[in-house]
Amino acid sequence: MKKYIVLVFISLFGFAQQTPAAKQSKSILILGAKAHLGNGSIIENSLVSLVNGKIASIGDATVMKPAKHDVIIDAAGKHLYPGFIAPNSTLGLVEIDAVRASDDESEIGEFNPHVRSIIAYNAESKLVETTRPNGVLLAQITPRGGRISGTSSIVQLDAWNWEDALVKENEGLHLNWPRSYSRAGWWAEPGGIESNKNYEPQIKEIQTYFDNAFAYLASKNDKKDLPFEAMIGLQSGDKTLYVSANGEKEIIDAVLFKKKNNIQKMVIIGGYYAFKVAQLLKENNVSVLLKRIHDLPLLEDEDVNLPYKNAKILVDAGVLVGLQNAGDMERMQTRNLPFYAGTCAAWGLTKEQAVQLISGNTAKILGIDNNYGTLEAGKSATLFLSDGDALEMKSNIISLALIDGRQISLESHHTELNERYKGKFEQQKK
Question: pTM of the full predicted structure?
Answer without folding.
Answer: 0.91
